[in-house]
Amino acid sequence: MGERSRPPVVMALLAWIVVGCSNQPVPPPDTRAQDEAAIRALDMNWAQWAMAKDLDKCVSIYEDDAVAFAPGLPAVIGKDNIRKFLSGLVTAQGLQLNIHVATVEVARSQDIAIDRGSVEATMNDKKGKPVTSASQYVLVWKKQADGSWKILADTSASEK
Asked: Going from the N-terminus, what domains does the chain have, and what CATH number goes with each?
């Protein structure tokens, strides 16, 4: 049987297969490199905001139901409680922060990221003498509907 003698049903089936295969959803563009850069910039911005004593901006990048963990303290849950927790750091005299981002891994799904690094924090003690401490951190970021990123979980461990 030649091509001209194929029944119309077979031709319709072939056409349906071709059309069906060509209508597969196109995956979203891979924005992981841009997302990583945005998160790294937010890390640096956060340090600048904290040193400028801008608590509102520091808290603005946390999800409403975010959780923060710090050594020796109970979990801090929710943006309002994180605001209270961060207020002591942000208002510290002589505050200087030096953040070293080690890695930012954006999930293939492009909606969650893990950010890991270290922080050196210097602030004045009660006598006005600068004291420096170092810690390691891990942040879990969640991509928002508008493409921005917010912190879902924040944890740190002191270096000693």
From this structure: 30-158 (3.10.450.50)
